[in-house]
């Protein structure tokens, strides 16, 4: 049976992991299963930027993927980047198995504000939908309220809904059918 696995990359609170799994289960019709903690790959650290390169983390997630994994969602507290961008809220393989979401810049504390668990969960749900949407072949959506809209600043994350617009939802639903009935 296909499953969506959720895995902490480095130390992530157990409650956050459980909440993320429940959020993913609301949208994706697969059993959601936890995987044991994955240490942050040392080669992911970029001392020049004082950030972690997300591609190295994604490579480690690919290696950790069980054979029955439909998707693997990694959650991390690491501040992610790629050479082209100064930071990422997350990254995914387009039409692939692996996605990673960083909690680092989703937290109010990053912006010098008091912690807000409800807002963190809302932002996390949006980014989980966004990155897992990429794994199902979705690209960035022009509808600013769709979870698949591009988020280059936290205000853009906050402006999204925790759901897909109708066209994006329909495309994801068609992919579920393909996964359940491979030809």
User: What CATH architecture do you see?
Assistant: 3-Layer(aba) Sandwich
- Rg from Cα: 15 Å
Strand order of the largest sheet: 2-1-5-9-8
Discrete helix count: 5
Q: Give the termini separation.
A: 17 Å
> pLDDT below 50 for ≥5 consecutive residues: which ranges?
none
Proportion in β-strands:
15-25%
What count of domains describes the coordinates? 1
CATH domain topology? Collagenase (Catalytic Domain)
Topology:
Blueprint (H helix, E strand, L loop, with lengths): L2 E7 L4 H14 L4 E7 L6 E2 L4 E3 H11 L4 E8 L3 E3 L2 E4 L1 E3 L5 E5 L14 H19 L18 H6 L6 H15 L3
Parallel strand pairs: 1-2, 1-5, 4-6, 5-9
Antiparallel strand pairs: 3-4, 6-7, 8-9
Characteristics:
globular, alpha/beta, 5-stranded mixed beta sheet, Collagenase (Catalytic Domain), 183 residues
Walk me through what this model shows.
With 183 residues, this protein is α/β, with parallel strands linked by helices. The protein has a single domain (3-180), classed as Collagenase (Catalytic Domain) (3-Layer(aba) Sandwich), CATH 3.40.390. The chain contains five helices and nine strands; from the N terminus they run E-H-E-E-E-H-E-E-E-E-E-H-H-H. It has helices spanning 14-27, 54-64, 117-135, 154-159, 166-180; strands spanning 3-9, 32-38, 45-46, 51-53, 69-76, 80-82, 85-88, 90-92, 98-102. The strands form two sheets. Strands 2-1-5-9-8 form a five-stranded mixed sheet, sandwiched between helices. Strands 3-4-6-7 form a four-stranded mixed sheet. A hairpin with a 5-residue loop joins strand 8 and strand 9. The longest helix is centred in the last third of the chain and has 19 residues, at 117-135. The chain is globular. 36% of the residues are buried. The mean pLDDT is 93.
């Amino acid at each position: 049976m296909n499953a969506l696995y959720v895995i902490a990359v480095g130390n992530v609170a157990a409650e956050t992991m459980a909440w993320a799994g429940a959020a993913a289960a609301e949208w994706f019709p697969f059993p959601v299963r936890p995987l044991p903690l994955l240490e942050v790959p040392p080669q992911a650290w970029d001392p020049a930027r004082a950030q972690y390169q997300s591609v190295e983390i994604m490579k480690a997630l690919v290696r950790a993927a069980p054979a029955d994994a439909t998707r693997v969602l990694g959650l991390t507290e690491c501040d992610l980047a790629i050479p082209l961008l100064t930071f990422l809220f997350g990254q995914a393989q387009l039409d692939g198995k692996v996605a990673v979401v960083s909690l680092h810049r989703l937290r109010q504390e990053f912006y010098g504000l008091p912690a807000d668990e409800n807002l963190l969960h809302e932002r996390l749900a949006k980014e989980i939908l966004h990155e897992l949407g990429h794994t199902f072949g979705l690209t960035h959506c022009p509808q600013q309220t769709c979870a698949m809209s591009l988020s280059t600043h936290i205000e853009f994350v906050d402006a999204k809904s925790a759901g897909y617009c109708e066209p994006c939802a329909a495309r994801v639903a068609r992919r579920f059918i393909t996964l359940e009935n491979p030809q």
